[in-house]
Amino acid sequence: MQDCERCVQWVLDNIYRPGDVIHLFHVVTHDTVRSLECFSRPMEDDLPPEHYQEMLVEHAHTMIQERF
């Protein structure tokens, strides 16, 4: 956590200017996504794991395009 705080502080000290907007993204590794699939997938969802991964990527792309 200290590394994250140090990184944000560096951005604020060296890059940020009044009026700027900072967007933070949490990037999840492929292995983390696989381990969390069983908790985040609806029980009735019978998509094979590879299709579920594609759906997550498509959802992320759509969210980023809509917001930025």
Short summary of the structure?
This protein is mainly alpha-helical and about 70 residues long.
Explained architecture:
The chain has 68 residues and is mainly α. It has one domain. It is built from 3 helices and no strands. The longest helix has 19 residues, at 49-67. The model has no long low-confidence stretch (mean pLDDT 77).
How many helices?
A: 3
Indicate the proportion of strand residues: under 5%
Overall, the morphology is elongated
Radius of gyration, in Å, reads: 17 Å
**Uncertain parts:** none
How far the N terminus sits from the C terminus, by CA atoms, comes to: 27 Å
Short key terms for the protein model shown above:
68 residues, mainly alpha, single chain, 3 helices
Topology, element by element:
Elements (H helix, E strand, L loop, with lengths): L1 H13 L15 H11 L8 H19 L1
